[in-house]
Amino acid sequence: MTTEELAPELRQRDVALVDLLDRLLAGGVVIAGEITLSIADIDLVRISLRALIASVSSLVDPGGSDGGAAP
Amino acid sequence: MTYTWLYAVAPAGPEPSPPKGAPGGVADEHPRTVAAADLLAVVGSVPDADFDSDALQRHLGDPQWLERAVRAHHRVVSATATGGRALPVRFGTVYRDDDRVRALLAAHADDIRAALSDIADRTEWGVKAYLDRAHPDGADDAGSGADRPAGDRPGTAYLLRRRTARDRAEHALTDAAGQARQVHLALSGLADRSTEHPPQPTEATGVRDPMLLNGAYLVHRSRAAEFARTVEALRARHGPALRLELTGPWPPYSFAALPTAGDGAR
């Protein structure tokens, strides 16, 4: 994925993303609908999130390695 | 063709729920309202090709799409649900059309009203506690290991020191976990309701210190200042070994539940 595109938005808001996901994926009222995310979908989101976070923290914390993103 | 994405539900009142300049939604659409049974649903029209269950599943595997959608959902909910006026709806709730939304509002009107009154005039706050490894209560400088008799072999002193260091780290963790419990209890005492999310893994926080508390607290407006002061006081009492982080105000995501449907949904 293009970490470069993510960076500007995440710079100011990356802290909240993980908190947001805690709340958005498990919280909010459920009104039996037609297309609602199932538990399996939530797992998919977590995997996806992990990929996202991994790319973010390598951006934020240059301590790991400085390869990764193109300049 | 479009589907109808649901963001929040509010009582039909004098102020129309989504302000005119409301932010764009999950499909960059302009959120609008659908009314039924004295309730307003804040909804958006989203392209069905992107939001049927297969497409949605594909999108969820795309971190960038996911982040954009989650943030958009949150923006619309926040614009609507400030001050405990609206009930946030679970991310990913999509209906075939507006009529379906009206039908559901009417069918669940009593439950929705009950859930709305639970969160009225209340706000969610988040408090996370980390063990701050940079401040292990000065244990590392105590020097007790250095004067220990070395015994017969030089390796023994080293092994003892290693074990002592490990024991101390474990002790610090247990101790901090106990303090995190106290923090949660103290804050729960000021909240109408409280809950805990699973501690976020270090790979998700980007913080190396382990998280010992990921609490959420539903606090009445009249107690918001007291809550903030209490967090400050707890920070002073338990720091620096325990580091507290306050987030919010949040829409009451963690406390939005219909009285009857709650159990199966979790």
UniProtKB/TrEMBL annotation, chain A:
Q: Which domain of life is it from?
A: Bacteria
Enumerate the subcellular locations listed in this protein's record, separating them with semicolons: Gas vesicle
Does the record bear Nucleotidyltransferase in its keywords? no
Extract the Pfam families matched here: Gas_vesicle
Q: Which InterPro entries match?
A: Gas-vesicle_GvpA-like, GvpA
On whether Transmembrane is a keyword of this UniProt record, the answer is: no
Keyword terms, alphabetized: Gas vesicle
Protein family (similarity comment): Belongs to the gas vesicle GvpA family.
Please state what the protein is called: Gas vesicle protein GvpA/GvpJ/GvpM family
Native source organism of the sequence: Kitasatospora saccharophila
UniProtKB/TrEMBL annotation, chain B:
**Designated name of the protein:** GvpL/GvpF family gas vesicle protein
Instruction: Give the family this protein belongs to, as stated in its UniProt record.
Output: Belongs to the gas vesicle GvpF/GvpL family.
Q: Which UniProt keywords apply?
A: Gas vesicle
User: Which compartments is it annotated to reside in?
Assistant: Gas vesicle
Q: Which InterPro entries match?
A: GvpL/GvpF (IPR009430)
Stretches the record annotates as Disordered: 134-155
Q: What is the lineage of its organism?
A: Bacteria, Bacillati, Actinomycetota, Actinomycetes, Kitasatosporales
Organism's domain of life? Bacteria
